[in-house]
Amino acid sequence: QVFHDVAYKAKDRADLVAGIDEFLDQVTVLPPGEWDPSIRIEPPKNVPSQEKRKMPGALDESSSHSKPEKHSGPELERTGRLFGGLVLDVKRKAPWFWSDFRDGLSLQCLASFLFLYCACMSPVITFGGLLGEATHGHISAMESLLGASMTGVVYSLFAGQPLTILGSTGPVLVFEKILYKFCKEYTLSYLSLRTCIGLWTAFFCVVLVATDASCLVCYITRFTEEAFASLICIIFIYEALEKLSHLRETFPVHMHSKLDLLTIYYCKCVPPAHPSNETLRFWRAGGINVSGITWANLTVTECRSLHGEFQGPACGHNGPYAPNVLFWCCILFFSTFVLSSLLKKFKTSRYFPTRVRSTVSDFAVFLTIVIMVLIDLGIGIPSPKLHVPHMFKPTRDDRGWLINPIGPNPWWTVLAALIPALLCTILIFMDQQITAVIVNRKEHRLKKGCGYHLDLFMVAVMLGVCSVMGLPWFVAATVLSITHVNSLKVESDCSAPGEQPKFLGIREQRVTGLMIFVLMGCSVFFTSVLKFIPMPVLYGVFLYMGVSSLRGIQFFDRLKLFWMPAKHQPDFIYLRHVPLRKVHLFTLIQLLCLVLLWAIKASRAAIIFPMMVLALVFVRKVMDFCFSKRELSFLDDLMPESKKKKLDDAKNEAKEEELKLGKTSRVDTPKPSSDRADPSEINISDEMSKTTVW
Predict the structure, then answer these.
(1) Do residue 636 and residue 616 come from a single domain?
(2) Do 511 and 521 share a structural domain?
(3) pLDDT tens digits for range 253-281
(4) pTM (2 d.p.)
(5) What InterPro entries does UniProt report for this protein, alphabetically (predicted)?
(6) How many other C-beta atoms lie within 10 A of the C-beta of residue 604?
């Protein structure tokens, strides 16, 4: 195409020779003795633009890439006015508001919504259950379900980036545990003090929005993003496997059983040998005659209600248990993961029309859940099921839906709440904005823009509302958000045989997030259906989400290079321009940071986890002294520089452009070049977009 333009505009023989010369410079030659012409070369996934070839004196790939790219867009520029960034976010997103709903009318959005509804339900209920144990029922599954639904609906309707999915985080749970323990020791009202902290945190977040503090997000480069995202993905995978292993406590394996002794295996109910004071009071209050009860004939439920004990060789830790449940749970768990992965890849299968393959691929996880539920019902082994609250009321009868910020606490607790609120503000800000940066990556090709200030403002507003209502706090969930984005990828329809589909972008809309959280709020009325979903199936979905989110993270691609000989390494762009030892050094530093983050998150100091994530930004800044700017431009994003430095660079670039324009006499036609490519520089494994000549 380029030579076509040159040939039509050529005025003499020299122009034609220059066009042919430039064409041959771009050619990769494959020697006939080293290549079988009958083998078909696969078409490229993405054909790079050829416009730079039309420009005289155009920079080659290495030199053009070494120029610092602008890391931050207009949405991260400081305005210098109160709420200036928020106002610009609203103006930027308002024209797209109605199209966000029209674009959601797609079968792909329906598949994404059904998949993520199932994926979001379990962690919300599990988080509520853990919170209920930590706070003795002050905040439990019902409050978690209501808080997630309310926050998610409002965020999906009005946020700047509706592709972000909100969820619960580990540091928040650690904070709640510490706060409840503190209140219990000093006889303070937990819910009232928590409300004060939540309101102060919401206020500080609004102050951050007013001062355009989200502009600091431009210092969060790929180094920090990938370390944080990798940690969250690994935690998802680890917790999925850990929850599966915990089922062994409830459903143990009856090992070394003998067939001849099966007739004498039993697990019966007996009165407690040493009843506690609580049990004695219960018997006395209920007028229960212990000696008049036939304990051996009681059911499991009746035995537990009368505070009896289980005895016998067939008893587990918690009494009788059904055999084979643990093995069946393992089958459900791994089958869910494998089947989800296979159905997701069904789009590239050779069978069935394109529309059928695309539909099956979009509904992969939902179809897997339905298939696994039906198989579980058919087999009949009593696997643990999803438990959803069936009544819309607070978990404890001594609390309502509105909490007094002071309550029975002294007045000074309102001021004392400032200190933990500052820590919570850092936690909320880092969790929210790092996830937002990952969702808004340039490679996702988002067209409707983003709104960091508007996102944080909506989170702050709902954080205040949830605090007053005594509900858990929710911020952006990294893995759920990445999974949401991946489920909405749009690719071109393949027309030619063997042509690879091209990635066109993400289907940006508000419908999926809105429907996920609306249905989550209505889940109280769907308990008759949701109670059939086995928990191991949902654990398998977590494993699938964690593994699938790891794809595309450059850190893991670089990690695999340690065990890969040079001749088998993929043709990554950074391997062409950065020495391998420097690539390994960069990966080792990132790996060390990841291990430290994991150690802190798993320890009692988990509450300072957001501070450690913030420390990654400073670690990355120090790396400027270990790597050149050109190396970092390939391995990572460049850090923003001072305003004076930017102005100096702009002046230097302007001078260089003037010099180039002065040397160039023709624009349409490339100059004749006598420089031929050195045969040693010809790269047979170069990009497929370049012409191949036999």
Answers:
(1) yes
(2) yes
(3) 776 666 666 666 777 788 887 888 888 88
(4) 0.67
(5) Band3_cytoplasmic_dom, HCO3_transpt-like_TM_dom, HCO3_transpt_euk, Na/HCO3_transpt, PTrfase/Anion_transptr
(6) 8
